[in-house]
Structures
1.
Amino acid sequence: MGKLSEKMWSALNEQVKYEMESWYLYLGMAAWLNDQAFPGFAHWMRIQAGEEMQHAQKIYKYIEGRDNKVELLPLAAPPKTWTNVEDVIEKSLAHEQVVTGLINKLVDIAAEEKDHATSVFLQWFVTEQVEEEETFRTVLDQIKLVKPTCSAMLYLDKHMAKRGE
């Protein structure tokens, strides 16, 4: 199997960065949601942030396992405010759609490089992205159903707090 090609190695390091930026973004969203008195949504988003860090670590370990050095790149700071809860979830869904595109590009690079091991490794992420987008779409659909009822949003907030770690 051996080392990754330069192109694959570089792209995987970029993906580690992007997964960590996802973690940072969702953590920022969680802080904002908590400040807006939506502790359930904040809890849900913190768990989502944790999943993104796990994705980064999974790729990190894969790079090392292929006898390559991990190169950590600088992270962009996330926004500090959003319009409302719906805006947070809409931006999260859009973000996940970008991640899906990046994962698809990694799969394309693995195919170009004839790197079958990385191609197999990336299939988990392809499946995960389908799940991530579906989850955010479901939450967004629920928010749109209850909008603009404050009591319904508070009910959803309590429901979001039940997400297990």
Note: Residues 116-146 form the longest helix (31 residues).
2.
Amino acid sequence: MEKYSCIPCGWVYDPAIGDPENGIEAGVAFENLPDDWVCPLCGAGKEEFEKI
């Protein structure tokens, strides 16, 4: 699974870790995140992320 970086702040979504503080378990691919999921650091939407 690919990692994605938040363009505005640089936070990296790593599917091996997920986003446990926001209810996203490890193993969830970026493409499978809910449409309303936002960067936990700056609040940017999924459209503000790029594959790294």
Note: The chain is about 0% helix and 15% strand.
3.
Amino acid sequence: MTNKPKSKILVSACLYGHCCKYDGTNNLLRDKTFQILKNTGRLIPVCPEELGGLSTPRVPSEIKEGRVYNKEGDDVTAQFELGAEKALEIARKNGVRVAIMKQGSPSCGCKRIYDGTFTGTKITGEGITVRKLIENGIPVFDETEANLAKLLADGDPHNHHH
């Protein structure tokens, strides 16, 4: 039996510990499974918002009616879409099969996102990058599901049923 190299996992850079959140901080994930993945070099950190050309720190953004606006009312959809494209490119280049993304983010949220009113109200929905990954066959988990993501990444690529 050959010991195949384990597949890489795309991850929001803020969870990895990079200070790339809109306010210049991070969301370092201390989850044990996540730390093991990190220490074994299996995580590929991306910040779609930085990849799309937005600065850190930056004005917070939320999705409204399919477009992304920052709190000052500027339409930043183009930057978010560019960041999503670049994140997907990085995922493909690294043979990524699974992603772990930061819940609530307008790029990385995979179940809940803010509703566009900047009142802290969350609704069901997906961030721009997450939607792009899912459309391209890469399942996305949030930061509470590192163990599930690892299981899927470790599984046989020719043998996963939904």
Note: The first strand starts at residue 9 and ends at 12.
